[in-house]
Amino acid sequence: MDFRKLWTSFSGKTKTTKKQRKRSQRTLYRCKRAMNSTMSDYTAAERYAEAFAKNFTTVLLGIIVTCVNGMFVFTFFKSSVFYNDPRYILYIHMVINDMLLVFFSVSLSVMAYAWPKVPLPFCVSLLIISSTTHKNTALTLAGMAVERYIAICRPLHHHQICTVRRTYILISLIWGVGVLPGLADLILLSLVRPLSVFTTSSLCSTTNVYSTPYHEEQSKITHGIYTSVVWVILVFTYYQVLIAARRASSDKSSAKKAQSTILLHGAQLLLSMLSNITPVIDKIYGQLLPTLRSKITFFNYLLTNLLPRLLSPLIYGVRDKLFFKYLKGLLSCRLFNIKVDSIKQ
If exposure means fewest CB atoms within 10 Å of the residue's CB, which of 71, 176, 311, 338 is most exposed? Predict the structure, then answer.
């Protein structure tokens, strides 16, 4: 038996097997690389499509809210009958404030995708305006409730207390009080972080910019104070109007109407406060459904931040008979033919 031939053939087979292994490993590596590249491209395409859909939906809903509220603003400024009524002045201030809130909220949402590195001074300015408009909604509702309380419980002094000039002073105070939490956040940021932080750029969001424990505590305190004060005002005015409605012998309809109006203010306040529970809902459902966290956060933002800004002014504006009369005239292109009637309290 020729052992040399046998050894040669065996060694040749071994060399061939090693070459085949190397080739198979190279082929497998190329396949994996191609698959990873395809998956990354597919994931990037999915992310782009999801981001585009979210931004498109947010901007579209923001435009709808702005257009609907814009009709109320246009109706107000086209009808001089509303100029001397503090109730309508406060109402249209709330509508304009909600329009500003929607604009800055949508802008910040789109910027999170389109402009991830925003200069901090510009970002802080946007956050302060957004925070101020958010606080203004609740404060304006409290002012409207007080106006109704004076109209029903102090009818003889209503025209002396609730003048147009004092109404605009109240609006100025609302903006002055509403801007305080935003300024407090800015001061805390200046004290906790070095001043060089204002030369940097970052993602423009409240949780990212105001990420210190001091900001978290300050947010809880200010939110508790604002919410408590507004609810105390609403409960007090509703209780007083309820007593006046029971005691009234002649004008019970006006008292009941004011009572339902204050209840509506409470419902509007609940709608405006939905945005405060957004982080809680995101945290709860994010833990239960981690794979759908981004979608849950997005739909939560729409339901708690944008939709209430549409429903609240819409319900109040349509419910008021005089305002709805002029609004209907505007929509039917007969606004200028409507005769101005006296305002019924």
Answer: 176
- Retrieve residue 256's tokens: 């009941």
The average pLDDT across 95-108 equals 92
Written as one string, the DSSP assignment of 161-191 is: HS-HHHHHHHHHHHHHHHTHHHHHHHHHHHH
- Whether 149 maps to a domain, the answer reads yes
Q: How far is CA 182 from the centre of its chain?
A: 16
**DSSP string for residues in 66-83:** HHHHHHHHHHHHH-GGGT
Tell me, yes or no, whether 113 lies in a domain.
yes
The answer as to whether 9 is a domain residue is: no
Domain with 60 in it: 19-337
Total structural domains within the chain: 1
Which residues 6+ apart lie within 8 Å of 78 measured at CB?
Answer: 326, 330, 335
In CATH, what number is assigned to the domain containing residue 289? Answer: 1.20.1070.10
| Predicted model pTM | 0.77
- 294 token code pair: 């981004």
> What Rg, from alpha-carbon coordinates, does the chain have?
31
How does pLDDT run across 37-77, given as a tens digit for each residue? 444 444 666 677 777 888 888 899 999 989 989 889 988 88
